[in-house]
TrEMBL record:
PANTHER family: AFLATOXIN B1 ALDEHYDE REDUCTASE (PTHR43625), ALDO-KETO REDUCTASE YAKC [NADP(+)] (PTHR43625:SF40). Residues 15-308 form the NADP-dependent oxidoreductase domain. Gene3D superfamilies: NADP-dependent oxidoreductase domain. Keywords: Oxidoreductase. This is Aldo/keto reductase. One of its GO terms (molecular function) is oxidoreductase activity. It comes from Nocardioides mangrovicus.
Length: 327
């Protein structure tokens, strides 16, 4: 277990499970397969589950709720609000209004079939609503017993400070991996100064760091990684990035693990306040990821990884459109 946050602390499994891909964005979905993957995760001690209302939309929360029925007390359950969508998938924009915070939470509780959420994140910062107002409404959820701990996602250092002044923030969820290290400049030092944990999403670079991806994913088959929204997966960018993955594979072979396990071990080695949530919809990959906690990295190993994949070596922005990211 690892502890996120110091003022409002939440103990979570070393490695969590991102459930998004079970319902959307990464090709066809199979709900029963997703349920089986989540239940196998719990059996393995991977009990920190991450979802959001917009995944599906709404489908993923229902799937997670079905999977954890009867096992709620084993789970550290996290979900998110703020990327507002309609049932048909229409995107309405980012919403951080206090009224919406309450409405979204009640809807998530119903879909998940639980009486409280362990960690409730603002999925994206609404730049039209003062963060103090949004977090103030989130704090009311804590007071009502609907939520135990508060989180932010993709928030800037300044926003994090303002939010923390309203109510203790337990964790920041943001992208962080060998391929995405921008938070090391200002955001990560701010988290540690304030005693806030870090929950890296896409710690495997959306699958790139596993070595399993060798061509641009099929956008027509529903895999969003094959669209312009993810520039790292196409053309010259992909070719360059696969050369980096080949270097990681060499190091992984020497350690007797897979490239993905080595990449996850790197994230885990960044601090005991870091709990990554690699996503998968298959038991096979879940089991591979879970074994990463047994990969011990020495100072020499970490140095070799830094040399193989220098911080800014990856080609392409992490998103084709960064306008929704708080900066």
């Amino acid at each position: 277990m690892r502890t996120l946050g110091t003022t409002s602390s939440l103990a979570v499994s070393d490695l969590g499970l991102g459930c998004m891909g079970m319902s959307e964005f990464y090709g066809e979905r199979d709900e029963q397969q997703g349920v089986e993957t989540i239940q196998r995760a719990l059996d393995l001690g991977v009990t920190f589950l991450d979802t959001a209302d917009m995944y599906g939309p709404f489908i993923n929360e229902r799937l997670v709720g079905r999977a954890i029925a009867g096992r709620r007390d084993e789970v550290q359950l996290a979900t998110k609000f703020g990327n507002e969508r309609e049932e048909d998938g229409t995107r309405l924009g980012i919403n951080g209004s206090p009224e919406y915070v309450h409405r979204a939470c009640d809807a998530s509780l119903q879909r998940l079939g639980v009486d409280h959420i362990d960690l409730y994140y603002q999925h994206r910062v609404d730049k039209t609503v003062p963060i103090e107002d949004t977090v103030g409404a989130m704090a009311e959820l804590v007071e009502a017993g609907k939520v135990r701990h508060l989180g932010l996602s993709e928030a800037s250092a300044q926003t994090i400070r303002r939010a923390q002044a309203v109510h203790p923030i337990t964790a920041l969820q943001t992208e962080y991996s060998l391929f995405t290290r921008h938070i090391e400049d200002e955001i990560l030092p701010t988290l540690r100064e304030l005693g806030i944990g870090l929950v890296p999403y896409s710690p495997l670079g959306r699958g790139l760091l596993t070595g399993a991806i060798t061509t641009t994913p099929d956008a027509e088959a529903g895999d969003s990684r094959g669209t312009a929204y993810f520039p790292r997966f196409s053309g010259d960018n992909l070719a360059h990035n696969l050369e980096l993955v080949a270097k990681i594979r060499q190091l992984a072979d020497a350690k007797g693990c897979t490239p993905g396990q080595l990449a996850l071990a790197w994230v885990l080695a960044q601090g005991s306040d870091v709990a990554p949530i690699p996503g998968t919809k298959r038991v096979k990959y879940l089991e591979e990821n879970a074994a990463a906690v047994d990969v011990d990295l020495s100072a020499d190993d970490l140095r070799a990884l830094d040399e193989a994949v220098p911080r800014d070596a990856v080609a392409g922005e992490r998103y084709g459109d960064l306008s929704s990211i708080d900066a």
